[in-house]
Amino acid sequence: MSKIKMPAISIISIAVFLLWIKTYIVYKTSFDIQIDNWKQELILFINPLSFLLIVLGIGLFFKERTRNIYVLASSFLISVVLFANVVFYRFYNDYITLPVLFQTSNMSDLGSSVNELLRFSDLLYFTDVVLIVLIILLKPKFALYKKYTKIKRAAFFIAAAALAFFNIGLAESQWSDLLTRTFDREVLVKNIGTYNYHVYDLFLQTKSSAQRAMADGSELADIDNYIHAGYDLPNEHLFGAAKNKNVYLIAMESVQSFVVNQKVKDQEITPFLNDFIKESYYFDQFYHQTAQGKSSDSEFLIDTSLYPLDRGAVFFTHSGNQYEAMPEILRDHGYTTAAFHANNKSFWNRDIMYSALGYDRFYSLPSYEVNQDNSVGWGLKDIEFFEQSIEHIKEIPSPFLAKFITLTNHFPFELKESDQLIESYASGDSIVDNYFQTVRYTDEAVKTFVQKLKDEGLYEDSIIVLYGDHYGLSEHHNSTLSGFLGKEVTPLVNMELQRVPLVIHIPGQEGKTISSVAGQIDVKPTLLHLLGINTKNGFNFGSDLFSETRSQFTVLRDGSFISEKYVYTRNTCYDQTTGEQVGEIECSPFIEEAKRELEYSDSIINGDLLRFYPNKQK
Ligand code: GP9
Ligand code: MN
């Protein structure tokens, strides 16, 4: 009987194994990654492996000396990347992204504190590299050079690819929209691993740099003409009506207009809003224009008056651009600008994008006391969020812009029983039933906030703007909704469901419901005019909602639109008033215009064209 011979282990396998285990240890010791179940732990454990196998596997094609050099060099480089993330994380509590590396202000912050960030024990992060050097020098028996046949090499890469698919499959089972809509670095690193995350980041960076490099600003002249031909003069009675007031901008997560003034079992879903709109300007035909970037897209629309992109989140892909955003403009007018959101600051890349948009301060998760009792679903409950935020507001010099992002009314609309303020709709569609409860809760939270402003003496000097960020109930729930609305959800009704509330409250002013077609893109010029700031030279696709010359035309991000007379959706043109389908010819001039508008906005973002804009609005 022949003896079973132990196969020699290749230096490649040793390097892969060491890097793999090291990466996992680093995950567990140097990053703060939240793991909720064993599957997530397994994903975390395997996620560095496919990348390491593929990169180090290239060494299989080399002869001994070259292979050794390749393995050593790649082990070293990968270790440097991992270690750089560790140091970066110590400072920023976040993973490195390429745009961040190129943002000099970030890097100088980091540079000045590098001494404090480094420890002698950090050398341990390179233990495996030292082991590889020893193996190369000492040539132990278990790690002798071996040649691999073509078939073995192919099998190796097939196995690595299979592992990558297994990893992604498992991750998608935990986070179903992982690769389509989440741009949360923590979720990415947790699921596809730190190395694959960097590859993805590099891909995004290369693509946007190429588009930016090709642009030279000549495209801007046409866009400039287009935008300025559409400029509407401000309403002379309202221009400056809120001059120097503190602005409270509140994003109501997933609140759609159809709940306003509606009841579930005879109980109002939004009792506070229903009263509040009576003493506010209330826009009942205001549409969200968001796409994959969800909440972040709504913030982008409101702050920049540009359209978000049709895929990906512009917050993530174009945070290095120059914008002339509302916070920045307000800052130039003496305002302090702050954003409040009790979530990870890197979620939707907000930390980076907020500084590009001109926010001075960002009160994110560490600024809040969050525990089991005061949180639900996605985190801190809205009432607690507002209560704690008020304390921070007191630190901010006036006049200020304070933006708040609520969270409780987020899919899947979880709520503790003690916070359920109305009877259940009990349709059997638990998402819809829960939605009414969480909307009711968020309504209560906004009420608490406005009351707090009054208690703290902040109310009189304020302008309060409430808006819904995007739909909360997707089309999967249309049959339940048709029961609630008492009508079939046709494509036209589905468009109506894209309406979200916009409420502009100026203490002391009378209320009025304004039923003109509007969108999130119009908020910036509207607000700036109320604050007495001219937008004539600005670069806004939206227009002042109070302007007397404004034409009604709102384009949604998928190219559908609503004009005074027509609604166009899913390649079909409808008459607004009759609800009847009409020939495409009626809609065709608007179809072209909608397309042009979206294309112009896209080229501003992709080419980073505002960097060429000479009359930056100040
Ligand atoms: C999370 C909150 C919700 O930070 O903004 O994001 P969404 O999923 O609605 O985009
Ligand atoms: Mn949202």
UniProtKB/TrEMBL annotation:
**Residues the record lists as binding substrate:** 410
Indicate the principal place this protein occupies in or around the cell. membrane
Record: active site? 295
Binding locations of Mn(2+): 253, 469-470
**Domain annotation Sulfatase N-terminal: ranges:** 245-533
The record's section on SUPFAM superfamilies has:
Alkaline phosphatase-like
Molecular function GO terms recorded: metal ion binding
Which UniProt key words apply to this protein? Cell membrane, Manganese, Membrane, Metal-binding, Transmembrane, Transmembrane helix
Q: How does it sit in the membrane?
A: Multi-pass membrane protein
List the subcellular locations: Cell membrane
> Where do the TM regions start and end?
7-27, 42-62, 69-92, 123-142, 154-171
Q: Provide one Gene Ontology cellular component.
A: plasma membrane
Q: Please indicate which superkingdom the organism of origin belongs to.
A: Bacteria
Q: Name one Pfam family in it.
A: Sulfatase
Q: Do you know which InterPro entries this protein is assigned to?
A: Alkaline_phosphatase_core_sf (IPR017850), LtaS-like (IPR012160), OpgB/LTA_synthase_biosynth (IPR050448), Sulfatase_N (IPR000917)
Residues folding into a coiled coil are: none
Concerning its family, UniProt says:
Belongs to the LTA synthase family.
Q: What is this protein called?
A: LTA synthase family protein
